[in-house]
User: Which sequence fits this backbone?
């Protein structure tokens, strides 16, 4: 089969690899019909994720068809169409039993796909603990739009919106209007906040954010007196936002979260930080600020798939480009130059 392989820092190749086979009774082999690229894949290629060995097939998102199953797989049969969750759940450890799949204690659970096990940028992928880590695709679903449910939609919801505690009428600021920030924007609206201010340096992405429901947008580069002054009129009488969601992952944006959060508010950090950040505990404690962070669990997928099926989760605009699998290197190029190409998520069809 063909697969996209990480061959060490800065090197990826579209190569021939052996087709995976069922090894454990709970495995399923999925024939991918679509896959996509995530910012984390770029981090892997840049060498920021040292736990990924050269030779690894990367990718942790995708939709496909069940090709074969181990004898313990009960929920799926050959030919079923499935969405692959980016996180694998053993379903039996103490963390998985609480829905904290991202913290799975098993050496075969948590973030495994395209990390410590071969991933989804391939014609076939072996899914461990298939019953707990795959989800049925509803009949007639628009699978192109559904692709974003593997990772970024549950990430925006679980790590941003739910951890931040978005409630009806509250004020929300989201820093970063990339795919993950936009996923937080989309899912925040399920909880009817009064105000959602999207903050990004990319005007193209701010325009998308406006179309996807942001009440206001702010570009920090045009905020001459700083972000705090630029957003002051948006959060009413308190001294900042009720919820600030960080969806970038650099020290400057975590600092901005601390500037923008209001008394009694919450900072939900979604971004993956590669460098040390400053935490101004000495200022924040007396203002009663809550700070949260987490890897996505994908435990909200059953609910999100129902919403998607009901037409209440409009993810269509998040897919900006389409490629054939044989064009995946070109897809990487387009995705990697997002500010020039306007790419959000790419749809790669097998
Ligand atoms: P992205 O790079 O596509 O988007 C980041 C956005 O931030 C860009 O639009 C960029 O213009 C903007 N930006 C950069 N610096 C800025 C600044 N100083 N002020 C305002 N905006 C700025 O990334 P993404 O794919 O949307 O992912 C966002 C973050 O979420 C990444 O750190 C990613 O690793 C992380 N992530 C976390 C989880 C999790 O489970 N916690 C899961 C997936 C992704
Ligand atoms: Zn587990």
Assistant:
């Amino acid at each position: 089969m063909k697969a996209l392989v990480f061959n060490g820092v800065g090197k990826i190749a579209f190569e021939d690899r052996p087709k995976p086979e069922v090894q454990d009774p709970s495995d399923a082999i999925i024939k991918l019909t679509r896959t996509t690229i995530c910012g984390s894949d770029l981090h892997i290629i840049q060498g920021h994720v040292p736990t990924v060995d050269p030779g690894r097939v990367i990718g942790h998102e995708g939709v496909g068809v069940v090709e074969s199953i181990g004898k313990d797989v009960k929920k799926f049969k050959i030919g079923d169409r499935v969405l692959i969750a980016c996180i694998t759940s053993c379903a039996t450890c103490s963390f998985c039993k609480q829905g904290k799949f991202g913290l799975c204690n098993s050496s075969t659970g948590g973030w495994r796909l395209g990390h410590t096990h071969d991933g989804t940028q391939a014609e076939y992928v072996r899914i461990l603990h298939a019953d707990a880590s795959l989800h049925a695709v509803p009949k007639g679903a628009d699978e192109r739009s559904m692709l974003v449910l593997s990772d970024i939609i549950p990430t925006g919801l679980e790590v941003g919106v739910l951890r931040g505690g978005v409630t009806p009428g509250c004020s929300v600021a989201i820093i970063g209007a990339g795919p993950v920030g936009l996923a937080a924007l989309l899912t925040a609206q399920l909880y009817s906040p009064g105000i959602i201010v999207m903050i990004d340096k990319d005007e193209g992405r701010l325009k998308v954010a406006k179309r996807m429901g942001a009440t206001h947008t702010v570009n920090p580069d045009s905020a001459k007196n700083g972000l705090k002054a630029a957003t002051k009129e948006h959060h009413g009488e308190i001294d900042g936002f009720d919820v600030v969601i960080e969806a970038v992952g650099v020290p400057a944006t975590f600092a901005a979260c601390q500037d923008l959060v209001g008394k009694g508010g919450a900072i939900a950090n979604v971004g993956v930080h590669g460098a040390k950040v400053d935490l101004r505990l000495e200022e924040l404690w007396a203002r009663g600020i809550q700070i949260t962070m987490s890897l996505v669990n994908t435990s909200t997928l059953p609910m999100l798939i129902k919403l998607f099926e009901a037409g209440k989760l409009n993810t269509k605009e998040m897919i900006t480009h389409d490629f054939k699998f044989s064009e995946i290197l070109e897809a990487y190029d387009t995705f990697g130059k997002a500010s020039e190409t306007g790419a959000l998520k790419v749809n790669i069809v097998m």
Q: What stands out?
A: The chain has two domains: 2-151+297-349, 155-293. The mean pLDDT is 96.
